[in-house]
Amino acid sequence: MQIKLFQRIKTSLVLVLMFTFCFALCSCGMKAEQKSVTSQFDVIDALIAQNQFDDAISELKKIQKQIYDSWSYIGVYKRYMTLGEKKSAEKIIKKALKTNSHNIELIALYSLFLLRENRLDEAEVLAKELKGTKYGSIYSEAILKKSYNNEEKLNLDNSNIDDFYQIFMDAYRGSNNPLWLRNCAVMDMIRGDFSSASALLPEYFLNLDDIFFWSTVLYDSSEYSKMLEVSENSNKFFDSSVLNEKINKLIAFESDSYIALHELDLAEQKRREIISNINDE
Fold it and tell me: Do residues 41 and 78 make contact, with C-beta atoms less than 8 angstroms apart?
C-alpha cells in the first residue's frame, strides 16, 4: 500500500516538474522572440535614420510575417506610417484587428488613421467602441467633425442626451478645453441635476464669458459662496471694451448671493456698483 502511494506521489512530482520545465521553455521562447522583434525594430529604425527607406520597407515586410501580438503590429504600423507607406500601414492594422478585434489601442490607432484620411463614416463606426475610454475623444472627433463637414446640427434630445454627454466629456478629456464642459453642464441643467452641473466647474477660465456662464450655473445651483469665488476672477478679464450689460448681470448675481448669505451690507455695495456703471454709460 505504501509502495503504491509512493509511486503515485513520484508520478505526480514528475508530471509537475515536466509541466514547469515546458512552461519555462515556452516562456523563454516568447521572451527571446520578443527580444528578436525589438532588435529587428532597432535595425529598421537605423535604416530609416540613414534614409535607406527601401531597405527599411524590405525588413518590415519580413518582420510582419512573424509577429502575433498587438504591440508588434503597432510597431510595424507606425514605421510604415513614418515611411509614408499608408497602404501597407492600413493593411497591417486591419490584419491586427482581425485577431485582436476589441483591443482599444488598435481601434484607436486605426480610427485616427481613418479620421486623417477623412473617411468619417468608417471612423465613426469603428471608434464607437472607444466611447468612455481613455481614447474616447477620438470618437468625439469623428462625430463632431462629421457634423461640421456636413453642416449638420447635432440632433440632441432626451433620447440621446446621455450619448452626447459622453461625447462632450470625452472631448474635454482629450483636449482639456473647458468649453466642452459647458455643454455637459447645460445638459445637466436641462435634466434638473444642478449638483452635477456645478461639480463640472473647471480649474481655470478662458474669458469673462466663461466666468459668467459658470457663475450662472453656481447661482442656479444655490452655491452662492462658490459663485462669489468664481466671479472674483472677472477682474482678470475686464476692460473698457467689455459690454457693461454682462458685467452688471454678474454684479447682480453677486448682490443676490450676498443676500442669500445674509450679508446685506455687501449686497447693497454691489447694487450701488451697478447704478454707478449705468450712470457712466
Answer: no
Short-list 141, 96, 90, CA closest to 115 = 141
Mean pLDDT of 78-95: 96
**CB proximity list for 47: less than 8 A, separation 6 or greater:** 53, 55, 56, 59
User: 0.85 cut: is pTM over it?
Assistant: no
CB 44 within 8 A of CB 56: yes
CA dihedral 87, 88, 93, 97 (to 10 degrees): 90
H-state helical runs in the chain: 2-49, 53-63, 70-82, 86-99, 104-116, 120-127, 136-149, 161-175, 179-190, 194-199, 208-220, 224-231, 244-260, 264-280
Give phi and psi for 239, each to the nearest 5: -150, 175
Do 219 and 258 touch, CB atoms closer than 8 A?
Answer: no
144: its cell numbers: 463632431
User: Which grid coordinates belong to 1?
Assistant: 500500500
Q: How many C-beta atoms surround the C-beta of residue 88 within 10 A?
A: 19
Rounded Cα distance between 155 and 158, Å, is: 10
Do 257 and 227 touch, CB atoms closer than 8 A? yes
Q: What is the pLDDT of residue 236?
A: 77
Residue 33 has pLDDT above 90, yes or no: no
Q: Which residues contact residue 146 at a Cβ distance below 8 angstroms, ignoring those fewer than 6 apart?
A: 120, 121, 124, 152
For the chain, what percent of residues have pLDDT higher than 70?
A: 80
Retrieve residue 12's grid coordinates: 505526480
Altogether, the residues listed in the chain come to a count of 281
What's the CA gap between 93 and 97, in Å, rounded?
6
How many CA atoms lie less than 13 Å away from 137 in the CB half-sphere?
9
Split at pLDDT 50, 70, 90, the class of 253 is: very high
